[in-house]
Design brief:
With about 290 residues, the chain is α/β, with parallel strands linked by helices. It is built from ten helices and 13 strands. The protein has one domain: UDP-N-acetylmuramoyl-L-alanine:D-glutamate ligase (3-Layer(aba) Sandwich), CATH 3.40.1190.20. The chain has a nine-stranded mixed sheet with strand order 5-4-1-8-9-10-11-12-13, sandwiched between helices. It is globular and about 45 Å long. It starts with a strand and ends with a helix.
Length: about 290
Amino acid sequence: MKKIIIGFGELLWDKHKTYEFIGGAPGNFAYHTTQCGLDGYVVSAVGKDASGDRLLEEAKRHGLQCIVAQVEKPTSVVDINEDDINNPQYTIRTDVAWDYIPVTKELESWAQKADAVCFGTLAQRSIKTRETLQTFLSLMRSDALKIFDVNLRQQFYNREMIEESLGKSDILKLNEDEAGVLNEMFDYRLSDIVDVSRRLLSDFHQKIVILTCGGNCSYVFTPTEESYMKTPQCEVVNVVGAGDSFTAAFCSCIMQGKSIYDAHALAVRVAAYVCTQDGAMPQWPEELKALFG
């Protein structure tokens, strides 16, 4: 039986200047875990509006399995622009559907069945969805894997939220900018983000910490081993969703019993592929899927 893995939080439209595509880190994560051969689902909410109906249709078209409520709030649209070095810059509106993810009997049932969940900070900006996440986590089995992908956006996070999330997670994923923010937030005063990652591993009793450094490299830390890999050179089309695909591939591999090194190598390969494609949920080629047997 396939393991069930959940992406909890935002499901939305990523809107560029001339086009839009389905996105949101939890949705991207769930999609890529399905490509890896797991039973991936996204837990979220969309509006009772035409945009929400279209988003659910788009999810279905991508094969993204949804545990999604429709609520009396607008479906989320995020504006994306690139900076001078092609890093995405997000403008995220407040008071949208995924700020109001409800606790339902269906949600409680999925929490009890799930083998893993991935969550971040953004969906916790609202009291309602944060409380729903806490309920979801509390209902999960003790052996279920809890993955915290920090995913800092704009001003929608604080120390209390991050400390609480770290206290509930087994795996932490962050990028180089987020490592810098946490270095300052926790007053570590360390000059190297690698040391920041090691400190987070120790201080918050994580089983694994994943540190990604964009087009340069990535690291994986555990209490007993470390892995470092350079990012492969590729023709970059779009980097939105690459980090989510990395997390999804790595965690899927771990759940399939692969070693830290093999999981890291496959995650790097998947993220590089996603960077060469349009949209955060590109179809995988069969030869890539075959690596996740």
